[in-house]
Amino acid sequence: MKLEIITPDKRVYAGDVTSVSVPGSKGRFEMLNNHAPIISTLLNGKVKVKDKEGVKTFDVKGGVIENLNNKIIILAESV
Predict the structure, then answer these.
(1) 55-70, pLDDT tens digit by residue?
(2) What contacts 10, CB < 8 A, 6 or more positions away?
(3) Given this model, what pLDDT does residue 39 score?
(4) CB of 61 closer than 8 Å to CB of 74
(5) Confidence of residue 32 (pLDDT cuts 50, 70, 90)
(6) Which of 26, 28, 35, 51 has the fewest CB atoms lying closer than 10 Å?
(7) What CATH number corresponds to the domain at position 42?
(8) In 8-39, which positions are buried (b, 16+ CB within 10 angstroms) versus exposed (e)?
(9) Dihedral sign, CA of 27, 21, 3, 62?
(10) What pLDDT shows up at residue 33?
(11) What pLDDT score does 3 carry?
(12) In the 8-state DSSP scheme, what is residue 78?
């Protein structure tokens, strides 16, 4: 899967990942390869990204996530 984490100021992360866990407005959820399309708002919390180098964590302050055809875009207010 491809992931981009973007704030109004910069692109924080871009790369291939195997899983992404986010603080959705209805609770934490995780996306794996071939996840169903989804759009959700995000609460303040930790985004956990697993890639070939290991697990990375980003503290986001709200935002929106979209997953479509194994491309995930996180538009965060700030990281």
Answers:
(1) 999 999 999 999 999 9
(2) none
(3) 95
(4) no
(5) very high
(6) 26
(7) 2.60.15.10
(8) eeeebbeeebebbbbbbeeeeeebeeebeeee
(9) positive
(10) 94
(11) 97
(12) -
Q: Which residues contact 53 (CB under 8 A, 6 or more apart)?
A: none
> Tokens in use for 31?
């996306």
- 46-49 — which CB contacts under 8 Å span 24+ positions? 47/5, 47/20, 47/21, 47/22, 47/23, 47/74, 47/76, 48/19, 48/20, 48/21, 49/3, 49/5, 49/13, 49/17, 49/19, 49/20
The residue to which tokens 């959700």 are assigned: 40
pLDDT band at residue 28, thresholds of 50, 70 and 90?
Answer: very high
Structure tokens at 44: 């303040």
d(CA 11, CA 38): 21
Number of domains composing the chain: 1
